[in-house]
């Protein structure tokens, strides 16, 4: 017996697809609507740490991700000088018995496709190019009308439609999305032979410049600067802006920079923060993933938190026999404080860089590792 028999999931990102897979595997009828006409995932690459990998294992796609992605167990720190002097190598270590790599890098569209494929394998009904327009709920369910004129009734609606959740707006759920003053360029590029692992350069023309391998022959490179409106740039201007910033960094950056020629594959995003205060469910509509919280990628934990939201929600729904306050209390108990540590920690790291102060980095990283090291 599960607390729900048919569920609507809105959004085919990490949070939505993971929820859909887990519920469908438990015998729930799941429909997932995604506003885009096909699987899409902007932003070149993603780092998936052990807590995200733990969920991918539960979803049944870990082995594929390990094959398709690239191990990212160590991070090398380099100076922004002419020799790209190596300053330190930080080995990521997990406690004995965890049996997962500390982190992998992966091409985002590969991950997105794998999640949707897995969803299809377990019986999720995907409706691309569709959104939910109206919601009418009573004690037992939610009536939904869709953008194609159809309608349906569901035991639960999972709103996983991202940081600017239209569902949140439609239900009048307030959220304050705070800009943090930093912006990031991200580029998918060939991986030079000299890139053995992820590398970070702090300081120089950017707050951070770095790259993370996403497979044996690809990587994603990133440059973090003061937030600017880069929205009006042409593809050629984006190439120029990225190459100009990257020219301040050397070592493997010299080769990476030369390979950046296609502006259409360059993304610019400003760092933002939000965390839904109080409850994430409004009756039988629940917000998860970026729709409930977002943070700058300074700890590379946003998608990990989205995956964990999905795992905990699905676990509770499958174990319970009804959707009630007790279920939501348990959900919030398991998610709110944990997510808050990650959001606050990510924001603090960005703020230290903006302020040019060192801060208690080991203390902060230790706290986050202790929290995210425990199963969600
Ligand atoms: C620059 C940057 C780098 C990052 N790097 C990392 C990293 O390395 N590791 C990590 O763990 N996290 C990282 N993150 C965070 C991570 O990308 C997000 O936290 C994660 O993608 C959130 O997943 P989600 O499913 O909640 O939302 P999303 O990925 O935003 O997915 C939402 C989905 O809903 C769809 N949608 C939107 N509106 C509607 C609608 N009205 N109807 C139907 N569908 C809709 C969208 O098209 C999308 O497919 C990074 C974030 C940024 C900005």
UniProtKB/TrEMBL annotation:
Record keywords, A-Z: Monooxygenase, Oxidoreductase
Pfam families in alphabetical order: FAD_binding_3 (PF01494)
Listed InterPro entries: FAD-bd (IPR002938), FAD-dep_Monooxygenase_BioMet (IPR050493), FAD/NAD-bd_sf (IPR036188)
Nucleotide-binding in keyword set: no
GO molecular function: FAD binding; monooxygenase activity
Domain of life, per lineage: Bacteria
Annotated FAD-binding domain residues: 6-345
UniProt name for this protein: FAD-dependent oxidoreductase
Source species of the chain: Planosporangium mesophilum
């Amino acid at each position: 017996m599960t607390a729900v028999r048919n569920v609507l999931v809105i959004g085919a990102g990490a949070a939505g697809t993971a929820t859909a897979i887990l519920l469908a595997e438990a015998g729930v009828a799941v429909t997932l609507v995604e506003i885009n006409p096909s699987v899409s995932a902007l932003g070149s690459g993603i780092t998936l740490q052990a807590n995200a990998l733990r969920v991918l294992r539960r979803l049944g796609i870990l082995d594929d991700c390990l094959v398709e992605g690239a191990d990212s167990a160590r991070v090398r720190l380099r100076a922004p000088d002419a020799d790209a002097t190596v300053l330190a190598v930080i080995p990521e270590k997990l406690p004995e018995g965890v049996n997962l790599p500390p982190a992998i890098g992966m091409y985002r569209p590969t991950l997105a496709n794998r999640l949707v494929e897995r969803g299809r394998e377990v019986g999720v009904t995907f409706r691309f190019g569709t959104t939910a327009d109206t919601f009418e709920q009573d004690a037992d369910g939610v009536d939904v009308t869709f953008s194609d004129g159809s309608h349906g009734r569901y035991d639960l609606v999972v709103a996983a439609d991202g940081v600017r959740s239209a569902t949140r707006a439609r239900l009048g759920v307030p959220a304050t999305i705070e800009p943090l003053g930093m912006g990031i360029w991200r580029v998918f590029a060939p991986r030079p032979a000299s890139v053995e692992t992820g590398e970070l350069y702090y300081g120089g023309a950017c707050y951070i410049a770095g790259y993370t391998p996403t497979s044996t022959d690809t990587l994603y490179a990133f440059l973090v600067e003061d937030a600017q409106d880069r929205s009006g740039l042409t593809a050629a201007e984006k190439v120029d802006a990225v190459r100009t910033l990257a020219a301040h960094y050397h070592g493997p950056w010299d080769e990476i920079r030369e390979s950046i020629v296609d502006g259409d594959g360059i993304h610019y995003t400003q760092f933002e923060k939000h965390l839904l205060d109080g409850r994430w469910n409004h009756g039988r509509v629940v917000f998860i993933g970026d729709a409930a919280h977002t943070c700058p990628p300074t700890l590379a934990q946003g998608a990990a938190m989205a995956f964990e939201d999905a795992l905990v929600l699905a676990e509770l729904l499958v174990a319970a026999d009804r959707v009630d306050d007790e279920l939501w209390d348990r959900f919030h108990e398991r998610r709110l404080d944990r997510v808050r540590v990650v959001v606050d920690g990510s924001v603090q790291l960005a703020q230290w860089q903006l302020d040019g102060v060192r801060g208690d980095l080991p203390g902060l990283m230790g706290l986050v590792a202790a929290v995210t090291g425990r199963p969600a």
